[in-house]
Amino acid sequence: MKKLTFAFLPLLLIVFAFGSFAQDKPMPSPPAKAESTIDGVKVTINYHQPSAKGRKIMGGLVPYGEVWRTGANNTTSIEFSENVKVEGKALPKGKYGLYTVPGENEWVIIINKTIDWGAYKYKKEDDVLRVNVKPGKTASFVETFTISVEKDKVVLRWENTEASFKISKG
Description:
Layout: H1 2-21, E1 31-38, E2 41-48, E3 76-80, E4 84-86, E5 89-91, E6 94-101, E7 107-112, E8 127-133, E9 136-150, E10 153-169
Antiparallel strand pairs: 1-2, 2-3, 3-6, 4-5, 4-10, 6-7, 7-8, 9-10
């Protein structure tokens, strides 16, 4: 019996050692949610928040002219409780992937059928709606990417850049 106990003791120590290394660590790009009501329509956005950490973001980490998942990790999702208009274009109620194509002078806001990890499975043919908006400068440096619903707009802010798109009841 003693031999059996001594044989299992090292195995038990290994199991406990691996368990202590597998502690929950905070995600580098934690999940976040922005939600509010615009014109009687509930707008809910689920996304992950990357931070700048001294890197050049727009035109660097987030290249100009390429589809971006608009956050980190999973595709950002946007959900509308009623039919809406995005920058005046009709969109049925539902849950969609929110992608963007950032540019120095213009951003493309993309509402897409696909909600998946990253932008790897993004297909232009699954776009439900595309609108162009003009980016602006933030009042101060924004370290962590944020999405907010303010008055009648969804606002994206990171680094020194801000882009927004208008929502109204459809």
